[in-house]
Each structure stands twice: as structure tokens, then as C-alpha cells.
Amino acid sequence: MIIKAICFDADGVVVNPQMQFSKHLKEAYGISPEMTQSFFQGAFDDCLIGRATLEDVLPAFLQTWGWKGSVDSFIDTWLLMDHVIDTRVIDRVQCLRRNGTICCLATSQERNRAEYMRTRMGFQDMFDHLFFSCEVGCQKPDPAYFQHIEKTLDLEKKSILFWDDSPVNIEAAREFGWNAEIYTEFDEFEKIVRKYIAVENCD
What we know:
53% of the residues lie in helices and 11% in strands. It has 12 helices and 5 strands. It has helices spanning 20-29, 33-40, 43-48, 54-65, 71-81, 87-98, 111-119, 123-126, 133-136, 143-153, 167-176, 186-196; strands at residues 5-8, 102-107, 129-132, 160-164, 179-182. It has a 5-stranded parallel beta sheet with strand order 3-2-1-4-5, with helices on both faces. The longest helix has 12 residues, at 54-65. It starts with a strand and ends in a 7-residue tail after the last helix.
């Protein structure tokens, strides 16, 4: 079946290298990944599916971590440090779109970064659809997330190709019936995507 739409994960695929904010926190403020682990593996999940906001849940954690600034300054620093776009991937996305392939961003984000990606990073103009988990109400690897995208696109499962750097998400997408490929690095991505789609005038 012909691939009609490709869904791209953000962090680790379109946004690459990732985790720049985590490195900055440790180097500049002494806030290590070990210190923030309980937040990212707990309250942050509610933010990713729109049940809570960073403004609500961060204050208690920031106090524990010894952050001296405001909640807003923490969020602003986060957004700026992780503003890292792999232009090679974006260039291929634009070429795919010119060749008639629908290109979507399929990513787990809380509302501040979702809006930042949409506007400041310019993704609203770079993709045909933006599927942010905080707006969908669920996130990968929940089948409901893939179902929402499929229903919105109104396409058959095998006409959708999904790229993610998480093996868990790739397996979930395949179990749902999509074509799915693990993203490791750009050159490999280029080789594999051309096996699915005959892309013209991209070089």
C-alpha cells in the first residue's frame, strides 16, 4: 500500500540532539537528572496529557531543587535550551510535503512547549498536522493516541508511516497496524524512507 502520511516524533527525531536543558541544569545550577527524576516520572506525566500544568506542579519541586528564580524563568530557560531543530530532517519533511505526502508531528508535550513548538519553532508551518499529547488527552504508546491520529487523517493503517526514537512507541505503533521505524540517525532514516516513498528533487 502507498504511504500517504508520515508521523514524526519530536524529541530525538526532529528535535535533535535532545536533553540540552537537562545538561544545562546540571552544569549551571547543580540540578542533576537524579534530582529531577521523581518529577519527570511522576507529576510531569499529568502535564503531558493535559491534566495539570507546569505552573501548578513545578513550584514544590523547584523549592526542593534549590532553584532561585521564578517558575516562569525556569520554563523559559527550558524552552530556549531545548530549541534545537535538526534542519536536515525538516528539509526532508518539506520535500516529502512537496511530493504530496502528509507530514505530521506526533509528540508528547505539555502545553507550554506545545505552543512554543507551534509558534516559536515554527512547526505550524512545517507540518500538516501537530498532534500534541496535552491536546489529544493521551500519549504514546497508548493505542488511543494512534487512534486519534488515524481518525483525524482518515487514512488506512498501512498508509501511515511512523518515526520515533523509542522502541516501546515503535512496537506499539506496529501492534496498532501502522508501519513504524526506529530513528537512530539521519543517514539511516534517509535510506529507509526511500524504501517506502519515491521522493523526487530532495537533494
